[in-house]
C-alpha cells in the first residue's frame, strides 16, 4: 500500500487532499480553518525540522512525501527534501511557475525586506499582499505612508495601517473596485504564480501602478517536480491504484 504524506496550505494542496482517502495524511503548517470535507486524515503544526519530519514518516509508515507548499515556503521545502532523504522515501514537489511581466507592466524586483523598504520610500499608499511578514514592521511605517495589508486572518486595528482579512481567489472586478476605492499607488507582491491572485497584477497594469515583486527563494531538488497540481495527480494515479 502506497501511503502519502501531503504537505501544503489551502490552495493547490487542498485540491489534492480532497481526492485522497483515509490512509493518507494532509499536513497543514500554516494558519487557517481546517477543512471539514476531507476523507484523508488532517494534521496541523510543524514536525521539528527535517529530522522530526523524517521520524514521523518512518513511524507512521508513509511511502511518498508530497511538497505542495507555497513557492516562498523555502524552509519547509528544504526540510521536506532532507527528511525524505533521511527516511528513504521519494519526495515529489509542486513547483508552480512564476508570473511573467506583460506589456505595460512596471515590475521592480526586490531581494528582501530591506530592499523593499528602500524601493517603497517614494510611495504613500501601498497595498501589501505578502502574507503576515509586514505585521512585524507596522511600527516602522514612515510618517508619509499608510499601509494596507491583505492577509488570511483578521488583525487588531492600527492607526497607520488597514488589514483586510480575505482569502483568494480574487475576481478581477472586485480587485478593480478595491484599487479604485483605496487609491493605492504601488502594489507589493510575491511572485506566487497561478491564477487565484493574479487579477491584482492586471489591475496594477491597467492603472499604471508599479509592482514591487519579492524574489523567489531557491528551492531544493527533488525526485520529481510538477508545474501544476493536475499533472502531479495524474502521476500519482498508478501508485494509488496499486495501493487498493
UniProtKB/TrEMBL annotation:
NCBIfam families assigned to the protein according to its UniProt record, in alphabetical order: PRK08057.1-2, PRK08057.1-3
Keywords: Cobalamin biosynthesis, Oxidoreductase
GO molecular function: precorrin-6A reductase activity
Name this protein carries in UniProt: Precorrin-6X reductase
PROSITE patterns: COBK_CBIJ
Pfam families: CbiJ
Organism listed in the record: Aquipseudomonas alcaligenes (strain ATCC 14909 / DSM 50342 / CCUG 1425 / JCM 20561 / NBRC 14159 / NCIMB 9945 / NCTC 10367 / 1577)
Tree of life domain: Bacteria
Gene encoding the protein: cobK
GO biological process terms, semicolon-separated: cobalamin biosynthetic process
Transmembrane portions of the chain: none
Pathway the protein acts in: Cofactor biosynthesis; adenosylcobalamin biosynthesis
Amino acid at each position: 500500500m502506497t501511503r502519502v504524506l501531503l504537505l501544503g496550505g489551502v490552495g493547490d494542496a487542498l485540491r489534492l487532499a480532497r481526492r485522497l482517502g483515509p490512509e493518507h495524511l494532509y499536513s497543514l503548517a500554516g494558519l487557517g480553518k481546517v477543512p471539514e470535507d476531507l476523507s484523508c486524515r488532517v494534521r496541523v503544526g510543524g514536525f521539528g525540522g527535517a529530522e522530526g519530519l523524517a521520524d514521523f514518516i518512518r513511524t507512521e509508515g508513509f511511502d511518498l512525501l508530497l511538497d505542495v507548499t507555497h513557492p516562498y515556503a523555502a524552509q519547509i521545502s528544504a526540510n521536506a527534501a532532507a527528511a525524505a532523504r533521511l527516511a528513504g522515501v521519494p519526495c515529489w514537489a509542486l513547483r508552480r511557475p512564476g508570473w511573467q511581466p506583460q506589456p505595460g507592466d512596471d515590475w521592480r524586483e526586490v531581494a528582501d525586506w530591506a530592499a523593499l523598504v528602500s524601493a517603497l520610500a517614494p510611495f504613500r499608499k501601498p497595498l501589501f499582499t505578502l502574507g503576515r511578514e509586514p505585521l512585524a514592521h507596522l511600527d516602522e511605517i514612515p510618517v508619509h505612508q499608510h499601509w494596507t495589508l491583505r492577509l488570511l486572518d483578521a488583525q487588531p486595528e492600527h492607526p497607520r495601517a488597514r488589514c483586510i482579512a480575505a482569502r483568494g481567489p480574487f475576481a478581477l472586478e472586485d480587485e478593480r473596485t478595491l484599487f479604485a476605492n483605496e487609491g493605492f499607488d504601488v502594489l507589493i507582491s510575491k511572485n506566487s504564480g497561478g491564477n487565484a491572485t493574479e487579477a491584482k497584477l492586471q489591475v496594477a497594469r491597467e492603472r499604471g501602478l508599479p509592482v514591487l515583486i519579492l524574489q523567489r527563494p531557491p528551492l531544493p531538488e527533488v525526485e520529481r517536480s510538477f508545474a501544476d497540481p493536475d499533472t502531479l495527480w495524474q502521476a500519482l494515479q498508478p501508485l494509488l491504484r496499486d495501493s487498493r
